């Protein structure tokens, strides 16, 4: 967790530092990133870095959590635009991602998350029960008639969908798919979720 010194920075400066962290961590594996590289880009001393973060791992974990939350919010936004067709909202989000400029910071964040292959990418940040994000999530689940019986299950489903989106985008990148190929693969997954894999047996 970053230190209060970082969290209390003016928003503009904090956002710039987050973007520098993304640039460094998305360009290469964390094992190849040095604090010296980051502080040089930030135009500050090495000591200043440690006023913001405990160590490099702390900065890396924060960067993953920051962009994971941002993508969660954007997925919810797209689902909210298609309240009665939950999975269509996710499909629209994937289509939007596939059309992004590859030099954009958002695409850079997606590449970063698809390359993060350690446990950090699976650490869950539980939204507050009073948060707008969690309340909106419950409304969407109810509007689509999903049988989810507890807050824990609702959060687990949220992260399941996050994994579905990231895995779809990982396959899109790794296989150099077109948008149509990405969406077709996603539709297969939705069909499996909604209808299952077994065919109905006719009664003899």
UniProtKB/TrEMBL annotation:
InterPro entries: Homeodomain-like_sf (IPR009057), HTH-type_Tx_Regulator (IPR050624), HTH_TetR (IPR001647). Coiled coil: none annotated. The keyword Ligase does not apply. The keyword DNA-binding applies. GO terms for molecular function: DNA binding. Gene3D superfamilies: Tetracycline Repressor, domain 2 (1.10.357.10). SUPFAM superfamilies: Homeodomain-like. Residues 11-71 form the HTH tetR-type domain. Residues 34-53 bind DNA. Keywords: DNA-binding. This is Transcriptional regulator. It comes from Enterococcus hirae (strain ATCC 9790 / DSM 20160 / JCM 8729 / LMG 6399 / NBRC 3181 / NCIMB 6459 / NCDO 1258 / NCTC 12367 / WDCM 00089 / R).
